[in-house]
Specification:
single chain, 203 residues, 2 helices, 9 strands
């Protein structure tokens, strides 16, 4: 079983101690009241996130008198951007995680913004995996098509080179044959047999 994180570990990781409840509307930070459908008790930690005066947002400890900021959430460092807190119970905010989004606010002066940190559902994760698989398949298909195109181009180039060589060889053969047909031949066996000194060609 995992051991609960200590205060020091929570401080380093940007996680605050869980709160029992989180507000759903502006409230008076005084006395016992009902938060998110649940009656508060003295000592409860409450995430106050919906104040009409945003600098008053934060994590408070419930009391019968004036509420005070929790000891682990009363400085700019402990409320800096990215700090998270988990809500334990409530009608609306049960088991939700909230995140502080102001960049090191001056407590009591600067607005403290808090938003819900949505965790991906199983369906969302499944859809992301399928989308990644489709993208990887498309990339593989593109690479395969590119490889086939390159191979086809190489084959065409080789064929073109071979065809050019064949044409040159054929032309050379034809030229040789025609030259052989134009070799002059004397009619008769001796030069004295020439008729009128004319040279006869055999084509």
């Amino acid at each position: 079983m995992a051991r609960p994180a200590t205060a020091a570990v929570r401080l380093l990781t940007g996680e605050r101690e869980p709160v029992r409840l989180a507000t759903t509307a502006n409230i008076l930070l005084h006395g016992l009241k009902t938060i998110d459908g649940v009656p508060c008790e003295v000592g409860d930690r409450v995430l106050v996130k919906d104040q009409s005066d945003p600098p008053k947002n934060g994590i408070y400890t419930v009391s019968e008198g004036e509420w005070l900021r929790a000891g682990d959430a009363r400085t700019a460092r402990t409320l800096q951007k990215g700090t998270t807190v988990h809500t334990q119970i409530g009608t609306v905010n049960v088991d939700r995680v909230f995140q502080f989004t102001a960049d090191e606010p001056v407590v009591g002066t600067d607005a403290i913004a808090i938003s819900r940190l949505c965790r991906p559902t199983f369906q969302t994760l499944s859809m992301r995996r399928k989308r990644c698989a489709r993208n990887e398949g498309a990339e593989d298909a593109t690479e395969a098509s590119a490889g086939q195109a390159a191979a086809s181009a190489s084959t065409s180039a080789a064929n073109a080179g071979q065809t050019a060589a064949d044409v040159v060889a054929t032309a050379a053969n034809l030229a040789s044959a025609q030259a052989a047909r134009r070799v002059p031949v004397w009619q008769g066996h001796l030069p004295d047999d020439r008729v009128g000194g004319r040279l006869w060609y055999r084509w």
